[in-house]
Write a structure and sequence with these properties.
82% of the residues lie in helices and 0% in strands. It is mainly alpha-helical.
Length: 96
């Protein structure tokens, strides 16, 4: 019963996220991505809690999912900062 609830929430989150991202115009995508890095930081904290739960008696599968969540959230944060850095570099004066 609980697994079905979690699976439903996960599926709805995927659908809503896809719909929101596809509706964003390209000119707004990069600024929104840089702003979303703070949200990804919160995701990392939650993923670390889940990854640490496996040492508290949860199944090893939960720890593995937590590890994957930390990995993907870190990729998202690093990629977001890289894109933001590149975007800001476009507005700097070029040195001669």
């Amino acid at each position: 019963m609980l697994f079905t609830l979690y699976l439903t929430i996960f599926a709805l989150a995927i659908f809503i996220g896809f719909e929101i991202i596809t509706k964003v115009p390209p000119t707004l995508h990069t600024p929104l991505m840089s702003g979303a890095n703070a949200i990804s930081g919160i995701t990392i904290v939650g993923a670390l809690i889940v990854a640490g739960a496996s040492s508290m008696g949860e199944s090893p599968f939960v720890g593995f999912l937590g590890f994957l969540a930390v990995t993907f959230a870190m990729i998202n944060v690093v990629g977001g900062f890289a894109v933001t850095h590149r975007m800001l570099a476009m507005f700097q004066k070029k040195k001669r």
